[in-house]
Amino acid sequence: CEKQNGQSSKQRLLVVANRLPVSAVRKGEDSWQLEISVGGLVSALLGVKEFDARWIGWAGVNVPDEIGQKALTKALAEKRCIPVFLDEEIVHQYYNGYCNNILWPLFHYLGLPQEDRLATTRSFQSQFDAYKKANQMFADVVNQHYQEGDVVWCHDYHLMFLPKCLKEYNNKMKVGWFLHTPFPSSEIHRTLPSRSELLRSVLAADLVGFHTYDYARHFVSACTRILGLEGTPEGVEDQGKLTRVAAFPIGIDSDRFIRALELPQVQEDIKELKARFAGRKVMLGVDRLDMIKGIPQKILAFEKFLEENPDWRDKVVLLQIAVPTRTDVPDYQRLTSQVHEIVGRINGRFGTLTAVPLHHLDRSLDFHALCALYAVTDVALVTSLRDGMNLVSYEFVACQASKKGVLILSEFAGAAQSLGAGAVLVNPWNITEVAASIGYALNMLADEREKRHQHNFMHVTTHTSQEWAATFVSELNDTIVEAQLRTSK
Ligand code: G6P
């Protein structure tokens, strides 16, 4: 931290998100190991260095005892993280239930639970109550650590109730809220039983941000159609109070990836991977094992490509890294079995005694191994059915300065709006189209690859996570100054 008269000259920022950037694993009564958490939100915010930031969130583990809580609080403090302790029942109802079985699928256009997920609908109210209770617990921790002048930045669908809780505690608090998923069309949001309460709580924030202009527009039209409020070019107005609504497309810390490629250890990994897959084009998918990522559809398209292009069968390999996530939610368990079944079928069908066309790993890779993999990839497949932004596409581009590989990208990922001109865009539901795009990408000439890559590389290296955070926070400060001027007139 830069210091002036013993004080930090950077703006104090409280970043509040359900998941801390580190997750805790218990090693003993009072000893903890901390591991970097996965997900787009964490990967973007790790790059944000220009604030005096503290993180407030859940460490991903149940800690019922005081000794464990004290030790974990101390270990996290070294990483500038502050834990919110949630008990098992709350995690079950709030995180597995309301957040990940209701809001997450709905915001990604997969609808509300029905048929075999009806049990969830019956307990909808208790899950919503747990959601509100959990949000209040986050607010209590924020309030304990808040100092006058702090900016409080709340993140994601887990914490839509938080802006309201914070403003009730202190109306002068500067509160921003940012959604990392799509905000769906108001026709979708309209089906949610708690639709109005959630919108009103978010509107308590001073600034509301989304990755794309479309998500912002959907949010404003949900507020006008469902709440009957007035939408203006600046945001949403309710009885003279304006909540500013805008798009702030996120990025990555591209330098971190570019620098990593220079490390001897990464260079060594690159050499090994090249030798291992010599004579074959490498295609890569890196996703959390989540319904929205379209993994079954992607590998079915790969199967179709192999079916229609026998000449390619021993010349291409698809590496699919599928990081397990939300494993207590039944839909995620079903997805895992479904993916394993398809992978087995394809490898049984097209594999030989010495090679298989599809390597599927149910695990994450460490940062350096991932950079090496991105660097040797010829074609990356990001075929989410819906995705707020998708930073894997950015990470791939950042690591491709020498190879200039092709990005096949879903038109339903927010990233399609920023990397669309350089990527090969596809409708991930259309397996025939994705299979044809695989062929197009594998056969693309160097000139075209170069042009497409340059376009995307320029974007990824100039629209970084640092810039994203700085723009959001500065807009939040301006919004508050403007509001003060308006009320003093
Ligand atoms: C998405 C969400 C994040 C979340 C991440 C990982 O990127 O937008 O808020 O942290 O997925 O999911 P998890 O449930 O493991 O936190």
UniProtKB/TrEMBL annotation:
UniProt keywords, alphabetically: Glycosyltransferase, Transferase
Biological process GO annotation list? trehalose biosynthetic process
Q: GO CC annotations?
A: cytosol
The superkingdom listed in its UniProt entry is Eukaryota
One example of the protein's molecular function in GO is: trehalose-phosphatase activity
Record's catalysed reaction(s): D-glucose 6-phosphate + UDP-alpha-D-glucose = alpha,alpha-trehalose 6-phosphate + UDP + H(+)
Q: What protein family does this chain belong to?
A: In the N-terminal section; belongs to the glycosyltransferase 20 family. In the C-terminal section; belongs to the trehalose phosphatase family.
Q: What is this protein called?
A: alpha,alpha-trehalose-phosphate synthase (UDP-forming)
Lineage of origin: Eukaryota, Viridiplantae, Streptophyta, Embryophyta, Tracheophyta
Query: What portion of the full-length protein is represented by this chain?
Result: 102 to 590 of 953
